[in-house]
Design brief:
Length: 248
């Protein structure tokens, strides 16, 4: 955990220093998301998450929507493997101003949790295969897809703000960092894709569902390698965990 704090602080403050030295485009967005992890047997469950993201000035149009699902295998109560697929819509942007670009994204992930007396952590390591529809010009999609792999490592730290066992109505402090790395023959200048640093709170609807809200900074290198963007994001995610096992 100490290493996580050090690495997260380094990445965040390095991004801040970099934006001061370089000309980096900035935007303000809102990200809303719903996550459902449901378990229907000792070993099997499923994953669903849905996202909607605005474009700029928080509420000026939409930049992206996403639907992702997967089948989960539970190694034990704290460790699980998920294999799934996702479909993404990238709404009109600077390089395709009059058309929506689509993306097909298969993914594979291992996720694990660790519970300490006063702290909980969640980590995942995810591999994605990104098939993004080619763009011919501002108004026309091209034939075929651009393709690359991407690896994502996510670390979340949760600290309850009450001493008793978490119950409905309680809050926790959340610190979260996720780094994205591109690779593949089409990746030339942006092996580093982006870093997402989040700080906020979780409101516990009950012992297993929670609403997370707070601030996220997304720092991203563009495909050219010489341009960057920094997003200031108001992020609201709802995490819905269901257990349908008959023995429960």
């Amino acid at each position: 955990m100490k290493r996580f704090f050090i690495v997260s602080a380094f990445l965040f403050f390095s991004a801040v220093a970099f934006t001061q030295e370089k000309k980096v485009s900035t935007q303000q967005q809102v990200w809303a998301g719903y996550f459902n992890q449901s378990r229907f047997s000792k070993r099997w469950g499923f994953w669903i998450d849905l996202h909607l993201r605005t474009k700029d000035d928080f509420f000026n149009g939409f930049s992206q929507s996403l639907v992702r699902g997967g089948l989960t295998y539970y190694l034990n109560d704290l460790t699980k493997i998920t294999v799934g697929d996702a479909y993404i819509w990238h709404y009109p942007a600077d390089n395709h101003k009059n058309v929506t670009q689509t993306e097909h994204r298969p993914w594979q992930q291992i996720q694990w949790h660790t519970n300490y007396p006063r702290v909980k952590t969640m980590q995942w390591l995810r591999l994605e295969e990104r098939f993004r529809r080619k763009i011919l010009n501002d108004s026309t999609l091209g034939d075929g897809n651009n393709f690359n792999f991407r690896v994502r490592y996510n670390f979340l730290l949760q600290v309850p703000l009450t001493k008793a066992k978490i119950k409905a109505g309680d809050f926790s402090f959340i610190l979260n960092n996720e780094i994205h790395i591109n690779f593949g023959k089409e990746i030339v200048y942006n092996t580093f894709d982006q870093n997402r640093f989040f700080v906020g709170f979780a409101y516990h609807v009950n012992g297993h569902d929670n609403l997370q809200f707070g601030y996220m900074n997304l720092f991203q290198q563009q495909a050219s390698g010489s341009s960057y963007r920094s997003l200031h994001v108001a992020r609201v995610f709802f995490f819905h965990n269901m257990d349908w096992r008959s023995e429960k």
